[in-house]
Design goal:
about 325 residues; Rossmann fold; 10 helices; alpha/beta; eight-stranded mixed beta sheet; 2 domains; 8 strands; about 30% helix
Length: about 325
């Protein structure tokens, strides 16, 4: 659903049982590569992942969606990363895959963890439409937003943002600084350069009000170096985030349901219509049931019930370039 806001000779051949590799005369299947790396998944998940790969690579011939265009690269990079991310998410969490590209890690997470509420976004319209078509083809019902994540977050609430191969840490923290009200934490996958990126973020003051913690480290067999998962949250909420980690370790589901954040916009509806406002919500600046106005509303900045300077006049989901 797309929402716009030659085989080796006998003398040289080494038995596969000793190398764990696939014979050169055969093309490895997904099952073969999973067995090579001793990854065990239910048959239905393997089938769905296989169909996702085939659909993705078919679209990749038309668009530049991924460089991981064989099962070896898919398993050792996309699947391994997604499995590590999945181990840090509680049952019922509402997750946004930022800059999904060809659908990893978001689509893979949704396949591995059907208990999660996963949505995807990408600022490039062609990529968002392609991922939507891939999901339709494999029969997976996920929302795909053609939007910049920072615009989408002005209208929608998520528990966790997952980010991989999008931008440097300092740039990401600058982008999401104004919209921390719309999500709880960020989980991002980084390579060995993460320490240097952390120093840059500190230099520019991006971490002053934030807590950054390395919550996972592992060797990615696809790239041969250490990968880490960094968790970023507001310092004032670190106790809450630590409690969630304890609940996760105890096998408890997430206890809060995600909510929309209604934001009034002066811009016209985008093509295809605007996201519907949930029943019972109100525009930003409108009085609540008790007759009180939110900060910046009537009685402070004017008598029309609206703030003089709304944070944004752009409607989430609108193409942001």
């Amino acid at each position: 659903m797309i929402l716009e806001t030659n085989p080796m000779s006998e003398e040289k051949k080494i038995p596969d049982s000793e190398t764990g590799s696939i014979p050169a005369s055969e093309s490895p299947t997904l099952t073969d590569v999973l067995a090579k790396y001793e990854i065990r998944l239910p048959d239905e998940q393997i089938d769905l992942l296989d169909r996702y790969c085939r659909a993705l690579w078919e679209w990749n011939a038309k668009l530049n969606l991924t460089r991981h265009d064989d099962y070896e690269k898919f398993v050792t990079r996309d699947l391994v990363d997604s499995m590590r991310l999945a181990s840090h998410l509680q049952e019922g969490e509402h997750v946004l895959d930022v800059g999904t590209g060809g659908g990893a890690p978001g689509v893979v997470l949704a396949i591995l963890r059907p208990d999660l509420r996963v949505e995807l976004c990408d600022a490039t319209e062609k990529k968002a439409k392609a991922v939507g078509a891939i999901l339709d083809e494999i029969g997976l019902d996920l929302n795909v937003w053609h939007a910049k994540a920072e615009d989408l977050l002005k209208a929608h609430r998520f528990h966790t943002l997952v980010i991989r191969a999008v931008s440097k840490l300092e740039r990401l923290l600058a982008i999401f600084s104004p919209v921390w009200f719309a999500f709880d934490r960020i989980l991002m996958i980084k390579g060995p350069a993460w320490v240097e990126e952390r120093g840059e973020a500190r230099h520019f003051g991006r971490l002053n009000a934030l807590a950054l913690r390395r919550i996972d480290e592992y060797t990615n067999p696809g790239v041969g170096h250490q990968s880490v998962i960094l968790q970023v949250c507001q310092k004032k909420r670190i106790g809450e985030i630590n409690k969630r980690a304890a609940d996760l370790a105890a096998g408890l589901p997430f206890r809060e349901s995600a909510e929309f954040v209604a934001v009034e916009s002066a811009s016209p509806p985008r093509r295809g219509g605007a996201p519907r406002r949930p029943k019972g919500s109100r525009p930003f600046g409108a009085p609540s049931k008790g007759g009180k106005y939110p900060r910046g509303g009537k009685g402070k900045n004017g008598s029309n019930g609206r703030p003089k300077n709304p944070r944004s006049s752009r409607r989430p989901g609108r193409r942001g370039g």
